[in-house]
Amino acid sequence: MNRLWVRFSLLIAGVLFGVFFMQFLAIVVPHAAGWEPPHDGPPDGEIARRLLDFMALSAMVGLAGGVLIARVVSAPVSAMARAVRQIGQGDLTIAVPVRGSQELRELARTFNTMAADLRHAAQARRNLMGDIVHELRTPLAVLEGNLRAALDEVTPLDAAGIAHLYSQTRHLTRLVTDLRELALAESRALPLDRQPTDLAELIAESVQALAPLTEETEVRLTSEVGALPLVVADPGRLRQVLFNLLTNALRHTPAGGAVAVTAMSDGAQVRLEVGDSGEGLTPDQLEMVFERFYRTDSSRSRETGGSGLGLAIVKAICEAHGGGVQARSAGKGRGSTFTVTLPIEAPAEARQGSAVSVP
């Protein structure tokens, strides 16, 4: 009874017999009840025989129609079931043909989209593992080489050597911390301590904290902030966003250049922009700039170029607040601008979700 063709057959046969039986009642009942004058008609035996013929015809038509419809409907569903089993076995290259009715075609397209998303997620996971291994290999190799040389008494472990090893351990710690925060944010599990936050005050604090760095690099850092409403957000995370954007802008702006921070509000959201007159970005770089471990200048070392996770973390934190971030540039050597948008009120799901303090 659970087979699709059986159910369709019973349904069609039942509907047809119901129609025939209603027609039969419409003819017989008025005469039997005396509502219409009697007239010559088929005898009772003939009526019973016709009724049995109607039942047999209904059963035959229902069986044929049920089998036909079931084949039309169940064939793509069975193909999709086989594809699901293949995906469960790890074959993510599978795709089902898009055919049949509009509903079945839509189901097939949705399934193929899901399979493609799974392929991309698996590829991204493999790329992430490769990137992590690549990033960890260099500082670990440095630590191992220096410690081995010290153990073999080839190189004395003096204060300078210890300081160098310490810098490598700090890089490892920073990398692991960034990876943890990025993983939490992308899985929507990043703890946020949401509270009314004065973004103008955070901008002023960040600009002031980075002022000594601008003196060393001879880059002019300015801010222009209008009247901003309070935003419901995690001030610690927003400070991290500002710091990552500003240090990124200062790192890519040559001496004598300028970095400007502006912020404004349209009543529904706050728009924060960090613009610089530095190296600029090509269209290809604009598409990749928020990817993990992406560096616009691959020749930069890990120490001077950062871990390549700063902008990815900015994007993840902004999205965790219900906002977003975009980058634009007129081209190489013409500077770039990063625009952060944040809702003034926390999204409904965020208000109902986490209110835990950041550890």
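[next item in queue]
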Amino acid sequence: MGNPSIELRLWRQFAAVAEDLHFGRAAARLHMTQPPLTQAIAHLETLLGVRLFERTKRSVQMTAAGEALLPLVLDLLARAQALPEQARAADAGELGRLRLAFVSTAGFSLLPEWVRVFRERNPLVQLELLEATGDMQLQAFERHDIDAGVVLHSPGFAPPGLHSRLVAREPLVLAMSEHHPLAARPALALDQVLVHPLVIFPRRILPSLYDAIFGMYHAAAQSPQVAQEAIQMQTIVNLVSAGLGVAWVPDSVRQFQRPGVVYRSVAGKKGRQVPVCETSLVWPEGEAPACVTRFIDCAPVLPR
């Protein structure tokens, strides 16, 4: 037989008697008469299978079981009393959970300050962070495993089927080994770099930017020599340090100071410009949950 279901009313009555140690005074405080209160406590003891009070004609004393139970009951009643306010706070997004996925590039500069501001303004919201590539985020949205995501894409290519808010725009720069023949030059021209082997992410994880990079090569009548593919930007930079090739990375990746790697801006030509990339906050279509709205409100303002 399972444990009995005990109403909060009985726990309130137990707490009143335990605090007053007098059935008459406790009944008056509860706005009831003494006989129903006496019956209620007897019923509670029957449900629990233990005595909570020792009664005589002159006194009421708690048993050891009653004394042990009282702090737990008082905590239960306090939490129950707080539920309406917590429900209103959850509805307003002041309380709850936000599951946020983000691409690794957002973690270099954009996300830390954003998260700090959000936590300061919403200390009761549990923020769960998950590093994930764009394709993984789309799958997570389909499974309802995340509430919002931060994705990288080419201008105008935020993932379809989702609400989006542009939060950053930056140029691509070239990462190369410090021993690369071009590393000694402070700035480079596009024609100087397109002939060198390339380390790049697979197209499936970031198709719009992948196509923009390949389009830059094709516009210069070049075919990219892909030496190695890697998913994470940190891995790409590590492979560059090993001399496997050069890599086009967002400018914010400069903050990943991998020994043996240098970053260089590359000047394009008319009709052949180095692509830029954008970062957007995305969330499912429809009315956004209050926690997501609060996170949007903390988003950085993109300079015009």
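[queue empty]
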